[in-house]
Amino acid sequence: MQETQMTPELETIAANAAAAARPFADTNPRDRAKALVAVADALEANADSLVEVGMAETGLAEARLRGELRRTAVQLRMFAEAVADGAYLDVRIDQADPAFALGPRPDVRRYLVPLGPVVNFAASNFPFAFSVAGGDTASALAAGCPVILKGHPGHPELTERTAAIVAEALAAAGMPDGVFQVVTGQQEGVEILEDPRVKAGAFTGSIPAGQFLAGIAAARPVPIPFFGELGSLNPVFVTQAALDERADEIVAGFVTSVSGSAGQLCTKPGFVFVPAGHGLEQGIADAAASVAPHRLLNPRIAAGYAERREAVLAAPGVRAVAEGRVELDGSGQGWVTPTIVAVSLDDLAAGRDEILEESFGPLSVLVEVAPGTDLAALVPTLLDGNLTATVHAAAGEDAAELQALVRVLTEHAGRVLFGGWPTGVAVTPAMQHGGPWPATTNDSSTSVGTAAITRFLRPVAYQGAPESLLPEPLQTANPWGVPQTIAAAGESTGWGDDLG
Fold first, then answer.
1. What is the pLDDT of residues 243-259, one digit of tens each?
2. Which of 2.130.10.10, 3.40.309.10, 3.90.550.10, 3.40.50.720 is the CATH number of 236-418?
3. CA-based, 20 to 30 A from 92: which of 10, 75, 260, 384?
4. Terminal CA-to-CA distance of the chain, rounded, Å?
5. What does the UniProt keyword field contain (predicted)?
6. Beta-ladder partners of 237
């Protein structure tokens, strides 16, 4: 790795984050939880001005941005509840046991501790929920890690205003100086990721950018974990029985999911596998024709989408169901309507290099599957890892072929949906938003849901430590009142007795 000389500003930011790491990690969970709630309150109190700026910079609709800001605030409060509860610390206490089945057992106490400063690379398509105060920032703060936010150039004014609100709320809640800071600029982001004081990275964006940053994190003299959410096709599989039962509902949901926010969502259904002779074309064309033009986020995305759309439309065997359009203005901003195409399974396989990749915008591909096709065997030959996979089946439909498909989809996606559409990502404790490569760089993690906290924690065990030197969560007195899983002395000789 090439040595670089950091600017005084970056040096100060890195030093401040490092200085804040230990006192922030030592904060009482309830105090940290109250700070997260304070950030949520402050964001909602400033919703009108933030949404106005967001609309101007991203082209996203007011309703979408207000909903996203609300989601961001709810997410912060959800993490606050998890932190206050304390179960995320995963405290385990093995009491000293002279009669342990394998010989005398020492007192061993284990829990999870914060990694240290985290650099979070904000996303363009979610200027609230995956940006300044979004899920990666919220979960790192919840874990007790200072955050250095690398702002996205697609919404600089919104980044600055949101960051000021977050920093002020954290300071007013009594959190240490340096707990939340912002850097801008591509090179600055790279340099801060390379700094040895940074202990983890998080990213939401394209596969090339994610690979580049993950490579930097892995190539450091001391590698650090890097949690990148990259690309996803989000395949959908529709059975004939489901079409017979509710074809109109499936058409309406599909077009809404593809066109929402101009298709600029990581969970947009990119490929929908339907029985040949499905009869959906006219319904899809009519529904797509009613969708008003929507601006894409920025000229770079508009140019990329226009190029990708032309490549798909020109691929052999592809026919337009709803051709849609792209209109560029003098500054390169693009307004789009949905483009939905159809292709046979054989033509998709033959033209996979031209067709089978993510289109970031309102484009989706209907893949027409001949009767008797073994979809479970097909999936591994066509699809890599995805954030989601969806199955539309009829009520009560559970044929062996469908069961086999569900099993194989579980191996290729982080979230498997039955009915509905993947663009709805519920902010709930059990949510999984991650998946096998290239959906994410770490398929055992999630960026939504309370399990996201564990990305920024690592386990430490204390053996034979006196009570006075144990951290609060591991003390027998348990002053923080967190859940403790205790293995009492004398239990080991009976392990397995009740399972015979």
1. 999 999 999 999 999 99
2. 3.40.309.10
3. 75
4. 56
5. Oxidoreductase
6. 273, 391
